[in-house]
Amino acid sequence: MFLVSVVALARILPRRSNRIVNVVAATMMAAGVLASWPKDPDDLVFGAFQLIGVALIVAVCARWRDDVSV
Predict the structure, then answer these.
(1) How many alpha carbons lie under 13 Å from residue 65 in its C-beta half-sphere?
(2) Mean pLDDT, all residues of the chain
(3) 13-29 burial, b if ≥16 CB within 10 A, otherwise e?
(4) Using CA of residue 10, residue 23, residue 62, residue 56, what is the dihedral sign?
(5) This prediction's pTM
(6) Whole-Å CA distances, 53 to 14, 30, 69, 70
(7) Alpha helices in 1-70 (DSSP H)
């Protein structure tokens, strides 16, 4: 439920708080993917894409400036 609420929180929270929430959510998502790492080759590809997506979310959040309003 928390990962779904991050979408709504992105529109409400200021940048600094939003960055923290997104990094926490990305960490939780990566932990979930790694904890249930599949054994099938096609599922490995999807898991790798999920981890790449999580890394991109963290990279975008790290580049945000605090002084720019949403």
Answers:
(1) 3
(2) 87
(3) beeeebbebbeebbeeb
(4) negative
(5) 0.77
(6) 23, 10, 24, 22
(7) 2-12, 15-35, 41-63
